[in-house]
């Protein structure tokens, strides 16, 4: 197929096709390449900009709700009173309205941060804000280890942006045989998006699966949103495992093919 024909094929959401020069063993070829879009996204609460994150500009309603929940800005989805996604000259503003009591607490502890791709803790102004306390979760429903493997397999099959660009992470929530998946250039953003997408579901059983390592912040987000099982395709950090132990999260890593390694609360995984 010619380059012109390839350039005419439909693109995944929020990606761009460019012509690039590939050099392979000294041979050169002009070819189309699909690139993921990266956009500054400002999260504005009650008229005050709280955070600017570099993100994939899709599923921003889910992103805003998930971020507000996992950062403790609101305690439940119903406290997000209104939301409007507004394109602006330099990016996108997500304008969010929350109750005055929550907004007062946000202003009291407010921090300005500029998020970088793949960074979940950029801009924190003290060590106390980085290592944030969180309550332990109630017992989660045990699940067969084969369900965790199935969830990761399904996550891998439902990443159109990453398939086209090789530049996106994904997170999914697998429950009762079905999965909800969200993608983003940032792994923390992808997890916030899927948490926001399922926040109004009445249950938290099942498993969160992520296409990345399991850092402290990923475990914190899962625990803050009430999810008891988190499975990563790569390794966890030591701090992530300690947090998972303390908060009651079952943390699995290296979930690939027919194997996985469980680092905390293995009683929830049935072999």
UniProtKB/TrEMBL annotation:
InterPro entries in UniProt: Cytidine_deaminase-like, FdhD
GO MF annotation list: sulfur carrier activity; sulfurtransferase activity
GO BP annotations listed: Mo-molybdopterin cofactor biosynthetic process
Record carries keyword Secreted: no
Source superkingdom: Bacteria
Main location: cytoplasm
Function in brief: Required for formate dehydrogenase (FDH) activity. Acts as a sulfur carrier protein that transfers sulfur from IscS to the molybdenum cofactor prior to its insertion into FDH.
Listed name of the protein: Sulfur carrier protein FdhD
Native source species: Silvimonas terrae
């Amino acid at each position: 197929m010619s380059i012109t024909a390839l350039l005419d094929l439909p693109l995944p959401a929020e990606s761009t096709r460019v012509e690039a020069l590939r050099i392979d063993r000294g041979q050169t070829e002009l070819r189309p390449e699909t690139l993921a879009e990266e956009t500054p996204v400002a999260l504005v609460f009650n008229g005050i900009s709280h955070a600017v994150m570099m993100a994939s500009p899709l599923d921003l309603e889910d992103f805003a709700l998930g971020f507000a929940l996992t950062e403790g800005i609101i305690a439940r989805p119903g406290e997000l009173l209104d939301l409007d996604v507004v394109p602006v000259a330099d990016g996108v503003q997500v304008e969010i309205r929350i109750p005055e009591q929550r907004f007062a607490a946000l202003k009291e502890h407010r921090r300005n941060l500029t998020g970088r791709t793949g960074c979940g803790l950029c801009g924190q102004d003290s060590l106390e804000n980085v290592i944030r306390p969180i309550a332990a979760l109630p017992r989660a429903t045990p699940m067969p280890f084969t369900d965790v493997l199935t969830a990761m397999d399904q996550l891998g099959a439902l990443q159109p942006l990453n398939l086209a660009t090789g530049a996106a992470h994904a997170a999914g929530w697998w429950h009762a045989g079905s999965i909800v998946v969200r993608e983003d250039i940032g792994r923390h953003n992808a997890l916030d998006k899927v948490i926001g997408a399922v926040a109004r579901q009445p249950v938290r059983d099942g498993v969160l699966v992520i296409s990345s390592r399991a850092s402290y912040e990923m475990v914190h987000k899962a625990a803050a949103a009430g999810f008891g099982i988190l499975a990563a395709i790569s390794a966890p950090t030591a701090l992530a495992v300690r947090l998972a132990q303390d908060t009651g999260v079952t943390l699995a890593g290296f979930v690939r093919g027919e194997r996985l390694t469980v680092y905390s609360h293995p009683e929830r995984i049935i072999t």
